[in-house]
Amino acid sequence: MAPVEDSLTMATLSSPLGFPPIKEHWRVGGEGGPLGVGRCSTSLYKDILVNPKPSPSVTAPWFVDKSVSCLLEHCLGWEQEEQVEEQEEVAGELLLACSPLSLPTLLRLVEEGCDPYQSTSRGRTALHLLLGSSPPPSPHLLLPATSLLLEVGASLEMRDSTGATPLLAISKLLEGKQFTVAASLATLLLSSPLCDVNSMDSMGRTLLSYSVSYLDSSSELTRVLVNHGAKVWPTTMPTNPSVEEVVQDKEQSAFTWFLRAVIRQRNLDTTDATLNCLSHVMGEAPRRMKEHVIRIMVSEGRYPRVLGPVFLQLKLAMEPFWCEPPALRYLAWRSVRRSLGPRRLERGALQLGLPRPIATYLTLARGRRPAFK
Q1: What does the DSSP 8-state code read for residue 119?
Q2: How many Cβ atoms sit within 10 Å of the Cβ of residue 266?
Q3: For the chain, domain boundaries
Q4: How far apart are CA 14 and CA 219, in angstroms?
Q5: What is the pLDDT of residues 32-59, one digit of tens each?
Q6: Taking the CA of residue 299 as centre, how many other CA atoms within 13 Å lie in the half-sphere pointing to its CB?
Q7: What are the start-end ranges of the H helices in 323-369?
Q8: What is the pLDDT of residues 308-336, one digit of tens each?
Q9: Contact (Cβ atoms closer than 8 angstroms) between residue 258 and residue 213
Q10: What's the pTM value of the predicted model, to 2 decimals?
Q11: 90-196 domain in CATH 1.25.40.20?
């Protein structure tokens, strides 16, 4: 086997002009990138070069389809330790009855007066386990079981190790394409005043940001969340934001995750209902909406020949909502919804005695976008 120095020479000579192979220039993060762009920073290289470690033997497979950063990490003896996820400990009859769900056992425990605040080693309560189980229980069992836990006082504010509340655990149902059940469960949880529709997990994401990622497949859940006061921007933006605050605003925004879903499919198919909800909510702050939409488009934009027409179409659809002064129709919509409030919006829209098209518009039940004139 050739020594390390000869092997490095061979790796360098494998490309013209002594530079790394061309494909390495296109790698980013993880396994790729030129020196200092890979998994460890240049400062780490400097530290290791000043305090070298014994170099292990280098074998031929390390030179096959590897970047310079990976090669140096191996030669300098720096190995990234693999983090082994600790197995979750589930103890207690109530928790065991919810994962997997055993409705007869749950009924018995409720009658006996079980403690609804039991939690696993990861901080997940019975509600977390029930709503976030994979695969999810049958819908005709899941809804009654959730109602039972709410009746015995299950907390809607407790967070697990990822910062997720029971409401955020519904996002697991979206992964299993249980969109109708997710909307019904969200309606049930949000009927309690203790349930915060804008609660965020440790990654700064709300349930709305998860819902819009599935576009119109999850439009009913998106509509339920918006009607209960969900915000596209969960936090306020300072007057003179720092770079970190701008990045945070981008990652927390539900519009960012909606746009990323649009980019993945490269068109606006099956987006009407979701875009309608987002536009109406964002239109309450028209200047921020305009600046935010353009900034996120510039930040996330790529493949201009493909996505350019899509972004233009999206911008034209959202423009009426950030125009000032707003359209009279939109002002009336906003005023009536504020008067009713999120808790009695659905019921109040029907009790006003308005024509059905207007009532459905108040609750955003219609999938198509309204044309402002």
Answers
A1: B
A2: 12
A3: 4-75, 90-196, 202-373
A4: 52
A5: 444 444 444 555 445 545 555 554 444 5
A6: 16
A7: 328-340, 345-351, 356-362
A8: 999 999 999 999 999 988 889 999 999 99
A9: yes
A10: 0.74
A11: yes
